[in-house]
Amino acid sequence: MAKKKYKCAHCGETSVLKENDVRICLSCGFQSMPGYIEGSPYMEAMMKTAPMIVKELKFHDKEIDRYWIPSILDVPQKGMVFPDGTLNDWVWAFASYEVIPLFERVNYKVPNTDDEYYEYRLGLDKVEHFKQDDFLGALKKLGVDEEELM
Fold first, then answer.
1. What angle do CA 15, 16, 21 make, to 5 degrees?
2. What is the C-alpha to C-alpha distance for residues 106 and 119, in angstroms, rounded to an integer?
3. 102: CB partners within 8 A, 6+ apart
């Protein structure tokens, strides 16, 4: 059975999935959840470490009185989907994780450990880009099954 979709406050498409009041638009990739409200400790902490593009694209939805931000999805050992660019010229990006050759791992030490090294690195030199309204295309590169979402 198809999941019910809602109209997106950002792009206007009826592509929003909603579960436990967490909302994500499969078209534009913006998301919102209960903690995304002005002055909340969650929102303030997130904005301190968020990339500039996320801070710039964030917008307030007056209807539900909370913010929507572009999604960043990181699936270990697979890849990451994230917004890339500037406020007036941005796209969705997909970068896959690459295995770090054993002899190179000494260059990728896990912080605050004595002898742990990363096994994977994000291949930012091989990023694939998708239009602003093709978040689903980027998700497919990440390995998300479109049928499971629909």
1. 170
2. 10
3. none
User: Looking at residue 2, what is its pLDDT?
Assistant: 67
Q: How far apart are CA 26 and CA 10, in angstroms?
A: 11
- pLDDT tens, position by position, 82-94: 999 999 999 999 9
Contacts for 50-54: CB closer than 8 Å, 24+ residues apart: 51/82, 51/83, 53/83, 53/84, 53/85, 53/86, 53/87, 53/90, 54/83
Share of the chain above pLDDT 70, in %: 95
* Pairing of β 66-70 and β 30-32: antiparallel
Amino acid (1-letter code) at residue 38: E
Nearest to 149 by CA among 34, 24, 47: 24
Dump pLDDT digits (tens) for 11-43: 999 999 998 889 999 999 999 999 999 999 999
| Helices and strands counted in the chain (H then E) | 4, 11
For 127, residues 6+ apart whose C-beta sits below 8 A from its C-beta are 84, 93, 94, 95
21's torsion region: left (phi>0), alpha (psi -120 to 50) or beta? left
